[in-house]
Amino acid sequence: MKDAYFRANAAAVIINESGNLLIGKRKSVQPETWKFVQGGIHVDETPQQAILREIGEEAGIPVNKAVVLAEMLDWIVYETPTRWAKRSDRIGQAQKWFLIRIPDSIVPQPDNNEFDTLIWVEPENLMSHINNQRSETYLKVLPVLLPNLRF
Questions:
Q1: Closest Cα to residue 73, out of 93, 51, 102, 97?
Q2: pTM assigned to the model
Q3: I want to staple 39 with a disulfide (CB 3.0 to 4.6 A). Which of 54, 61, 94, 104 is the partner?
Q4: Looking at the domain assignment, is residue 150 inside a domain?
Q5: CB-based contacts of 150: which residues, under 8 Å, 6+ apart?
Q6: How far apart are CA 143 and CA 127, in angstroms?
Q7: Whole domain around residue 123: which residue ranges?
Q8: Tens digits of per-residue pLDDT, 86-102?
């Protein structure tokens, strides 16, 4: 494909002060699909600006309450399986990952566009919610951003 490309994307592992991780259930996707907050990076944004915008848009988290604790040095690049692809010119995504902490007092709210439900999960229960498409990426990211936890 002549003009095929990888979409630049920012993604966040959001952890609260209690040590739980935030995941969202994708709206109108079957079978049920859970994932971390993520989204495209606009031309005029840095990856960090993009993820802070995304956590506000998708989870209603105020930017001034979010603390970026870590950023992966490497980009995670993956191809999207053909059956999951929304666009024929997009090969997959190149993701920049962040670890973001928010206070327990913040109650994330789904945007009802990307997510219809947001839940906090204990790290050891995370992977039971994640489908095979994302599990490979998550198992690369999580040990880097949260090296003292087991998944």
A1: 97
A2: 0.90
A3: 54
A4: no
A5: 123, 124
A6: 13
A7: 5-145
A8: 656 777 889 999 999 99
